Amino acid sequence: MVGVMSERQNSLNHFYAVIPAGGIGSRLWPLSRADAPKFLHDLTGSGQTLLRDTWDRLVPIAGEQRIMVVTGRAHRAAVESQIPELADLNVVLESEPRDSSAAIGLAAAILELREPGVIIGSFAADHVIGNRPRFKRAVIEAVAAADAGYIATIGITPTEAAVGFGYIRCAAALDIKHAPSALAVDSFVEKPDLETAEKYVSDGNYLWNGGMFIARADRLLEQIGESDPALLAGILELAAAWDTPERGAVVDRIWPGLTKIAIDYTVAEPAAAAGRLAVIPGDFDWDDVGDFASIAKLHASGRKSDLAILGENARVLADSSSGVVVTQTKRLITLIGVSDIIVVDTDDALLVTTTAHAQRVKSVVDALKLSGSTDVL
Amino acid sequence: MVGVMSERQNSLNHFYAVIPAGGIGSRLWPLSRADAPKFLHDLTGSGQTLLRDTWDRLVPIAGEQRIMVVTGRAHRAAVESQIPELADLNVVLESEPRDSSAAIGLAAAILELREPGVIIGSFAADHVIGNRPRFKRAVIEAVAAADAGYIATIGITPTEAAVGFGYIRCAAALDIKHAPSALAVDSFVEKPDLETAEKYVSDGNYLWNGGMFIARADRLLEQIGESDPALLAGILELAAAWDTPERGAVVDRIWPGLTKIAIDYTVAEPAAAAGRLAVIPGDFDWDDVGDFASIAKLHASGRKSDLAILGENARVLADSSSGVVVTQTKRLITLIGVSDIIVVDTDDALLVTTTAHAQRVKSVVDALKLSGSTDVL
């Protein structure tokens, strides 16, 4: 047993956590904005931002010297104020958003150069995860699977027929040392309709896709290269210049031309198709807090009639109402007889919709963009 | 015919219009406030306040020297700024609200002392009336009925089974000179439920109670005295002091002790019971704009799917939504998939409800009063 423990410890010693902190979270407008993206908000009522929650969850696994944050230049100050412990070396700044393949690929390439053989794990900055011990156990298994050569992901055991998440269809158990619950992945499936989601949940072979990827950096890069050789070449050129005086010039030259594509398409799906993907089922609470309906659900804890209220200075008077109120103002908000309502109150914009329409917020943001109303985006 | 016209003209020569501008309009909170009552708002989108609309409607009937406004001391400046033409002599200021019997009774008593035999007509400051020629014709008949000794009211021919209004049950035609359409009044009935309202409308003998009363001032005071002798005594003492240096002292002593009661109970109902009430059916558009649902209805002009937007700086983006948005701010208001919604956006308070719950706004105001939240009232 001592041997086993130290071997596990060895895998974890090579582990580096990467937090891509990029997405604005358009479905959470007008709370989330270009200058105040989702990860800089407290959506759980915990009293701290989702980014800080993510950091606090990863420190006991990776240690605070081994967590890298990839974020936009505009967010540098906010990120550093959220995580004063974050070392300069662990901040990767994007000059503009190029999606997750570029962000995570660059982190992997930088870390691989600094520390050959490193295992990286990518964890979104803006998800909510409960039960940290279970999360940690799943990550440790995923790191073991990565150490064994797999690209590993953590899938979350569904608690309901959610239509807002992607699903992972699991296949047979893999026999991976120190990763006893690892399964092969048959395929990834996009957000289903309710009927399909219900089938998935009753089937028992489907997990929610939590978007967490754990792999040896060299394997991850290899997979990106198979999918998009030009993207890999760009990433490697950037990484080679990163810790040199050439960084700025190379970023200016290379970064804007990188393919803008999610890591799901360059890594997860092709790795699954090639039998290189392992999934560790996680039985912790998880939510990507993708829209206001999921905030309402998070806070209602299953009580349909509840009204969730978020906001430091919230002053709400509600009569026969349910849903969620998010406020950044000190105004008195009065609700009468509105069920499943979403009210988001900010200084310059107000949103009123219902939980059933929460996903449509994104299309309103798109409409505002098109109409040039960028002052409120 | 010349003789008839001049006789009519004679009645109208004795006519004085009184506008009690008192009610806050609690059902229109947070738009209506103690310091910004309903009559000081533009609820029709006409570009001017309801008070100014009322003034403009009465000037062609009474003349601008013969319209008296009874209002609270706090509203003096606002009223005078709305109606620069208003003569000082025609402003009666209440030190505190004592309801309509005191307000209209005092106006009647002051005017009767100044001009014995005067006929007064009381018209709410915060109702919406369309088709002014028809309104004028009804008032002229009512003045004729008043001249003949009746206490007259104008009832509005219902256009739908409204549950938000009181009704007047009409009896036989009265044979009054120059008031050919005058009917006796059987009784007043309070706001009915929908089934009852439908019966009223199909019955054909019911009119909406528009709260307009036209009578010789001496008859009106006599009726108040029959109902509440102490109230009449107080009113007469106030009126006697009004145009003297004693006014202030007498107001301070008498006004706060006057019975707080609506004129419906001291005048209209007892006069109807005694056969002294005449009703002139009016076929003009009328609404008391009692709540936000009626604002929505006014603006929708029958189109159920419409979203009415009120506010000088309104900036609204609506997707599959109907109802009414009233805004006093410059914020962008976005609605997605909310039907029959009411959104009222002010600097310090926001209301979200539905047209079906519009009447419940008053109870929220009551709750705010009780909880001491007077900063937003």
Series of secondary-structure elements of chain A, N-terminal to C-terminal: HEHEHEHEEHEEEHEHHHHEEHEEEEEEH
Q: Outline the biggest β-sheet of chain A.
A: 5 strands, mixed, barrel
Number of helices of chain A: 12
Strand content of chain A: 15-25%
Assembly type of the shown chains? homodimer
The CATH class name of the largest domain in chain A reads Alpha Beta
Order of neighbouring strands in the sheet with most strands of chain A: 6-9-7-8-10
**Silhouette of chain A:** globular
Biggest interface reads: A-B, 35 and 35 residues
N- and C-termini, Cα separation of chain A: 55 Å
Structural overview:
Two copies of one chain form a homodimer. Chain A is an alpha/beta fold and 377 residues long. Chain A folds into two domains: 2-287, Alpha-Beta Complex (Spore Coat Polysaccharide Biosynthesis Protein SpsA, Chain A), CATH 3.90.550.10; 292-376, no CATH class. Chain A is built from twelve helices and 17 strands. In chain A, strands 6-9-7-8-10 form a five-stranded mixed barrel, surrounded by four helices. In chain A, strand 16 (341-345) and strand 17 form a beta hairpin. In chain A, helix 7 packs across helix 8 and helix 7 (217-227) crosses helix 10. The longest helix of chain A is centred in the N-terminal third of the chain and has 16 residues, at 99-114. Chain A binds chain B through residues 30, 317, 319-320, 330-338, 341, 343, 345-354, 356-357, 360-361, 363-364, 367-368, 373, 376, and chain B through 30, 317, 319-320, 330-338, 341, 343, 345-354, 356-357, 360-361, 363-364, 367-368, 373, 376.
